[in-house]
Amino acid sequence: MQDIDNLKELDKKDEKDEKDEKAEKAKEVRRLIIQMIAEANSGHPGGSLSMTDIITTLYFSIMNHSAANPTWEERDRFVLSKGHACPAFYAVLALCGYFPISELMNLRKLGSILQGHPDHEVTPGVDFSTGSLGQGISAACGMALAGKIDKKNYRVYVIIGDGESQEGQVWEAAMSAAHYKLDNLCAFLDYNKLQIDGEVEKIMNIEPVVDKWKAFGWNTLRIDGHSIEQIIEAVGIAHKTKDKPTMIVADTIKGKGVSFMEGRVGFHGVAPTRDQEQQALSELM
Amino acid sequence: MAEMVATRDAYGKALIKFGKIYPEMVVLDADTSSSTRTQWFCNEFPERFFNFGISEANMVGYAAGLSTCGKIPVVSTFACFGSGRVYEQIKLSVCWPRLNVKIIVTHAGVSVGEDGASHQAIDDINLMRVLPNMTVIVPADGIETEKAIQYAIESYGPFYIRLGRLKLPLVFDDNYEFVLGRMSTLRQGKDATIIACGLMVNESIKASQILSEQGIEVRILNASSIKPIDKQAIILAAKETGVIITAEEHSIIGGLGSAVSEVLSTNLPAPVEMVGIGDTFGQSGSPEELLSLFKIDAAAIVEAVVRGIGRK
Ligand SMILES: Cc1ncc(C[n+]2csc(CCOP(=O)(O)OP(=O)(O)O)c2C)c(N)n1
Ligand SMILES: [Mg+2]
To answer: What CA–CA distance (Å, rounded) separates B53 from A140?
Structure first.
């Protein structure tokens, strides 16, 4: 009896360690985002930080992929439809080993493999070039459709923005993915409630957004986009869902993790100064 | 040193100025109002400003509808999203019915800089120029921007006005008169003619100073009016200087260089050297680095002039 209790305790401890490890990874990604954008003196911190937990969890706990073989045919695909948030994507790819971490400091510089918006011609690990909002999700649908045609087992993940959801093309994609029963497709809405010009709700309201995705025929879940457990659980449900694509509406905070960026529209596309970088890094220790 | 003004800033101010005069003016943007400066109009006339969020195609359709009911809609976003992204809507909802819609875009060309290829409009002059009923203007500085906007607001029909992100030295003073379809002569010279638009006008002026030191005197024409284009000025320049150098922050396919060549080849064939972006996409970098990388700066113009004179 005593032994079993001990084992249970140990299990809990392992679980806790694992959880801490994952949270630590996300923190590391956030630190890299701040450093690379400060170094480039240009880029989009807000939307990178809001999706950090999602993309970190996808690459470290969910997706089947290989840094050694970025174009491996059986790999799960990922499309960052809100391409401006690529600093988060690049940081994760670097930590996975797709290219050296030092490369991150070349973000947005002339000749860099890390362009201002994702360019799959030059960045190992990037499956699709994006930057013009609304287009990436259609391409992700196309990848999922190819998987169905070829009866492959890979899955396709895509992250879209809430401002991005105002594009008509997003809803054309939504309709088609349900029509083609793309249950190998799992989308995230990074619902950080902000876009460039202000609050999504005030600029062009997308509510009731969960009902919209449901009405378009998607298996629609709503989670806390900063809870790694909830992200993993939701993707698990997506995996088990047959004949429907899944949309995970993830409530997030723009600028998450850096006090003076959280919920602040001013940090959508503005780099932190060197002083702000130091403060942000100290908060992320 | 001339005063530095970004054409988008001049645009923001002009909107307020003409908004006061023309109550039928309405301004539409797609979540870029802080960058395009239409936010300044919004602060002044909130009831006449509409932010569509990120839905450019829908915004152009709204503008078309608004114009049929007597409004003068000014549609704004970045050049890449206000041209190619909504090409079909501009073509069939605006140009075909010849509606009174003013598309005024900012952040054109590679001088957008770090955002990279997806945000660098290098094909928009081409796309807009080919549309029947469309007028295309690329102002050289802040003063010409205001004058061109006034012209567009006060005349009927579709306009595409292409502005930039960077601050540029003023080329003109307040006495400057914008005349649609006419090129203004910024410098006289007998050896060659540079026909430039947008920020390349300033690069041409810099180039002319370098060339002058080498004993080469060039004429400079400001081709802000891309369509309609000033055929007379082009033909005259070819006659009098024997060679034309075009300079634009745009692909050499389909832009100003093509427009000038169309005029020359059908009227008075003459050697043309085109300074512009080759058949390639842009990339990230600082504006200066990119202008140099793509060979669209004063140094490239100097080379092109020397090459062109050699072909006379
Ligand atoms: C088609 C298109 N229009 C405009 C832009 C300019 N732009 C870049 S980011 C952005 C706001 C994005 O808001 P959202 O999707 O909510 O992203 P997030 O808040 O996650 O950063 C805009 C308008 C663009 N990249 N693409
Ligand atoms: Mg958002």
So the answer is: 23
